[in-house]
Structure formats: structure tokens, C-alpha cells
Amino acid sequence: MKTIISPSILSADFANLQRDIKKVEKFVPWLHIDVMDGFFVPNISIGIPVVKSIRKVTDLFLDTHLMIEKPIRYIDDFIEAGSDLITFHIEASKDDTYKTIEKIKEKNKKAGISIKPKTSPEAIKDYVNLVDLVLIMSVEPGFGGQKFIEETVSKVDYIKQISKNPDLIIQFDGGINNITGKICTQKGANSLVAGNYIYKSEDIKKAVESLI
Ligand code: DX5
Ligand code: ZN
User: Fold this and answer.
1) Residue 174: how many CB atoms within 10 A of its CB?
2) What pTM was computed for the model?
3) From ligand 2's centre to the CA of 173, what distance in Å?
């Protein structure tokens, strides 16, 4: 499977969001949208109305990363706004994990489950075969521009071992650049999120190509 690159618009200029989406559009299939609530992570970013506006200006696949407590409350709203994939955190979904996945799948959208750097991959063992994507965070969620935590990469082995789905997408998010991206893909990751590395580069096409 070709590695799916998903630029994180957290590193874009929010006053020029459409311009910054157009900058990456020709080179990638996905767009990563980081949603933060100030509770699950110590930061607040963007939400439903912004996804709705983004949907109007691009046909990119909208990869929505919910860093919010009790994500089940907002699944329908994000789908209605135009999300194609919704990834939520096991640490935030508590007893609602099965129901949250079900809610996404019943609308025929892709579901993803994520673990923070300190969470063991065993925490998601019951869900790996119910979702389309596993997101392994390679920084503490909350902010762009942090340093890649290399110890997170070995989690891929366990996920691959228990997965029965040959099409499972294993995504890394946080501190991804031309060096760390390759560390992830060599282990078997097939999707990379990159914010700062892509948006701070002069040549977006070159930056995207250099990740894999
Ligand atoms: C962090 C976000 C990431 C972030 C990645 O909480 O989930 O998507 O934007 O940014 P970089 O690539 O700069 O680490
Ligand atoms: Zn993210």
C-alpha cells in the first residue's frame, strides 16, 4: 500500500486556511484536522464549523483527529460537517469505545483509534479489528512542532501481530520529518501526518516526497 501523507493544518495560517490547503492539495490525498477541547489536551484549536468550511473548498479526504473528551458526543456533527475519517483517543472514550466506533461506521465513514505515547498498544487490542486506522501518537498530543518520541515506533509490531486486516492503516502523528518518517514506514506504518515539516518548507512537493 502506498504511504498516505496527511498534512496537519494545525501548522497552517488559520487566517489563510484556504490558501494553505491549496498549497498542499496537489501533492497529497488527505488533510489532517486536529480538534482540541482544552480538556483532553491543554490546548484549544478548531471545531465543527471550520470542518464545514474546509469541506466547501477542497475534495481532499478529511482525516479528523479528535483530541476531545467523550468524543461520542460529537461524531454525528463532524460527519455532517464533512469528515471522511474520524480518529478518537482510547484514553478519552472511556466506556463508550465500541459505541463510538459503531456510530462512525453506521454512517459509512472510516473510524480510527489513537493511543498517546505512554499508552500501551494492548489498550486497543479489542478494537484494532473493528477500525480502519490505528493512530500511534509519536508526541504528546496538544501541540505541533514537538520532538519525535522514537520509543513509540515499536508499537507497530504488536498492532501488526494482532491485526487480521491487511488494509489496516497504521498512522504516525507528531515530529514527522524526512528522517523520522522513514523510521515509521520501515517498521510498517502506511500513513504519516506532518505539520511543521511540510508547512515550514519552501518546497512542499519536495517535503512531501522526502517523508517516505
Ligand atoms: C499534535 C497533533 C499533530 C500535530 C503534528 O497534537 O495531533 O497532528 O499537528 O505537528 P508536527 O508534525 O509539527 O509535530
Ligand atoms: Zn493530529
Assistant:
1) 27
2) 0.98
3) 6
